[in-house]
From TrEMBL:
Domain Solute-binding protein family: 67-416
Name the UniProt record assigns to this protein: ABC transporter substrate-binding protein
Molecular function as annotated in GO: peptide transmembrane transporter activity
Entry's Gene Ontology BP terms: peptide transport
Signal peptide (residue range): 1-20
Family, as annotated: Belongs to the bacterial solute-binding protein 5 family.
GO cellular component terms attached to this protein's record: ATP-binding cassette (ABC) transporter complex; outer membrane-bounded periplasmic space
Superkingdom: Bacteria
Alphabetical keyword list: Signal
Localisation per UniProt entry: Periplasm
């Protein structure tokens, strides 16, 4: 049972600003490490925005990108491949060290020139165009890219390039003059940033405790303390909310909402989250090498029925790998993914499918409704003649050559098709790197035109070509944008902001407040 951290006044319903200084969040998952550079998980995304800053900020109240000064107060393209940034003076890290250009160069180059294996992966899948950061003076840096970059602000606003302190990090283990891999491992358990809250306590997989950082360069944090505790079971999270042991709880499935909303002391908020729950298929598995079998697996899945049954119609079923948040590059007119069981049966016959067992691997609790979706999908496969079963695993098997199909997610890491589809399915990206997806010279050429063109129309044409490749030789099926909900005490005013990546728990100024009784 959760330890009650709130005062009696807080648990009973807040009536003063002072009582509103602390909250407890019951979260479905808590990360095993906290390092914004190496993390790109749905779980990890919750935790960085409160404690770390990027050079270029964003108005998260808006869907469209509105860039704002953050740790950099201004930025200018001084050459086609070089950007100069002026740094904010007077910024202090949580350990008391002042932030200078040295910290910024260190933070960026640990990603741009990565040799720590987790950073290498993140560098390759989203930052491969960036060559280096250089110090001009104590409050000026320059960043160089290999090819002219159409997404400068977007890629300098990424979680992975949040700024960390050089001296502190190098001093965590070994030689204090050298950034060693062990330093980065140690940093992930004792993180330090420049944000409005410092991480006062972190127990991997159990809890994160934030405390207000009084020397923050921006607007003062509204909370003195916020504790995020892992409570894996939905029923336990709801119970914690009802008993006052939690003030906000995450990942509430739609079928639980009515029960919560009948309680006059509670409220819920929700949205179709900017990510896709997906089914991935191993194109290199001996039983799945024929693309017609994978086409059949995809065509057999009635995603609208999954939406109605699991999400009460609140999820969004896409026609292609596209999100409204992409702005001008939102392309719902494409029909990459469809439901056609008759065509699925015909393709299986054409391919000479011999009844081989196809296994759908699923995490037990990581994704809301994930296991239920897996069970329903295998039943749909059986209806078209696929011999299917579900295998429940609590570990990632996406790099296992024996993996056939499994549930996964494709989040929107930033508001561009590159930031969702591209991060996962680019040439040499994670999917190809783990051996379950293949690209060729033609695919790479299309990708280059999509990734680096400064013309929106040209990018749309190229993206449509990529989607056609995916349709003909499918490695993935986006099932839906899940409708994720959060529940909270009635007097807590908080909701996910449209400009954030998925699942961010934003407790900065202007993001959370409390109604007085």
């Amino acid at each position: 049972m959760l330890r009650l951290l709130l005062s009696t006044a807080l648990a009973a319903g807040l009536s003063t600003g002072l009582a509103a200084q602390e909250i407890t969040v019951g979260a479905a998952n808590v990360s095993d490490y906290l390092d914004p550079g190496r993390d790109h998980s749905n779980v990890g995304s919750q935790f960085y925005y409160n404690s770390f800053d990027t050079l270029i900020g964003k108005n998260h109240d808006k869907l469209d990108a509105e860039w704002q000064p953050a740790l950099a107060t201004e930025w200018t393209l001084v050459e086609p491949k070089v950007m100069e940034l002026k740094l904010r003076e007077g910024v202090v890290f949580h350990n008391g060290e002042p932030m200078t250009a040295d910290d910024v160069v260190f933070s960026l180059n640990r990603m741009y020139q990565a040799d720590f294996p987790p950073y290498v992966v993140r560098s390759r899948d989203r930052l491969s165009n960036f060559v280096k950061a250089e110090k001009v003076d104590d409050f000026t840096v320059r960043i160089s890219v290999e090819k002219e970059e159409p997404l400068w602000e977007t890629l300098l606003n990424l979680q992975q390039v949040m700024i960390i302190p050089e001296e502190y990090t190098k001093g965590l283990t070994g030689d204090p003059q050298v950034a060693e891999h062990d330093d980065f491992e140690a940093f992930s358990l004792a993180p330090v940033g420049t944000g409005p809250y410092r991480v006062a306590e972190f127990i991997p997989g159990e809890r994160v405790v934030y405390e207000r950082f009084d020397d923050f360069w921006g607007e003062t944090a509204p909370l003195a303390r916020a504790t995020v505790r892992q409570v894996p079971e939905t029923a336990s999270r709801v119970t914690a909310l009802k008993t006052g042991e939690a003030d906000i709880v995450t990942n509430i499935a739609p079928d639980q909402l009515a029960m919560i909303e009948t309680d006059p002391n509670l409220r819920t908020v929700g949205s179709a989250t900017p990510l896709f729950h997906v089914m991935i298929m191993n194109v290199n598995h001996p039983e799945l090498r024929d693309p017609r079998i994978r086409q059949a697996m995809s065509l057999a899945i009635d995603r609208d029925l999954l939406n109605e049954a699991l999400w009460l119609g609140k999820a969004v079923v896409p026609s292609t790998h596209t999100l409204e948040e992409f702005g001008e590059l939102y392309m719902p007119e494409l029909t990459t993914f469809e439901y056609d069981p008759e065509r699925a049966r015909a393709l299986l016959e054409e391919a000479g499918y011999d009844g081989a067992e196809i296994v759908y691997t699923s995490f037990p609790t990581y994704y809301t409704n994930g296991l239920l979706a897996a069970q329903a999908i295998t039943e749909m496969w059986q209806e078209v003649g696929i011999n299917a079963k579900v295998d429940v695993q609590d570990k990632w098997t996406g790099g296992d050559p024996e993996m056939m199909a499994r549930n996964w997610s494709n989040p929107m890491y930033f508001s561009d098709p590159f930031g969702s589809f591209g991060v996962m399915w680019a040439p040499h990206g994670p999917s190809e790197g783990e051996g379950r997806f293949n690209t060729d010279a033609e695919y790479a050429d299309i990708w280059e035109r999509f990734r680096f063109s400064s013309d929106t129309k040209a990018r749309k044409v190229a993206y449509a070509e990529l989607m056609d490749r995916i349709k003909q030789d499918p490695p993935v099926l986006p099932l839906y944008r899940p409708y994720e909900s959060w529940a909270m005490r009635k007097d807590v005013n908080w909701s996910p902001k449209p400009g954030h990546i998925p699942y961010v728990l934003d407790f900065r100024a202007g993001s959370i407040s409390f109604a007085s009784n």
